[in-house]
Amino acid sequence: MRPFACVLLSFLLSLATVSLWAADDADANLPRGAELVGVAHAEGADQPLDQQMKGELDSLVPRLRQLPTDSPILIEAHFPAQKGRGKEDRIKKAYALAEQAQQYLSSRHNLRFEYYISVWENGGASSADRPKVRFSTYPLDFFDN
Fold it and tell me: Considering only CA atoms, which of 119, 113, 31 is closest in space to residue 72?
């Protein structure tokens, strides 16, 4: 019975870890009426729009195609801190990554929405931190002044 308890405890701890990681990406702090579409991750920071991220962007396409064509889409990119690089450099890289993701979806999948580009600060960096792009949809009048 003891080995079973160890396996069960190990499973529950891994489940809690995955849940915390998913909550970090989902960020339940979206404004009222906004909805998370999904998050795409890069394999590493050298080439942020790599094959892994393109694959994850491709997997978001069916969900994006379900949205009304006049839906405002917020694309937020996060770029992890790197040794010897300041916050300004990280912000520039994150913004460029968000633009590249938008261009990829527009050219590869012909997805035409009203896109808004932003930088996503992801709190404390960890060694597992890597570039990522988060997509959220907002109510039609959210970005109107």
Answer: 113
Neighbours of 119 (CB within 10 A): 17
Q: Within the chain, which residues score under 70 in pLDDT?
A: 1-28, 122-128, 145
The token duo for 26 is 């989902």
What kind of fold does domain 31-137 have according to CATH?
Answer: 60s Ribosomal Protein L30; Chain: A; (3.30.1330)
Q: In this structure, what are the phi and psi dihedrals at residue 32, rounded to the nearest 5 degrees?
A: -55, 135
DSSP structural state of residue 75: E
Residue-wise pLDDT for 124-143, tens only, equals: 555 568 899 999 999 888 87
User: Any alpha helices (H) in the chain, and if so which ranges?
Assistant: 2-26, 51-65, 87-109
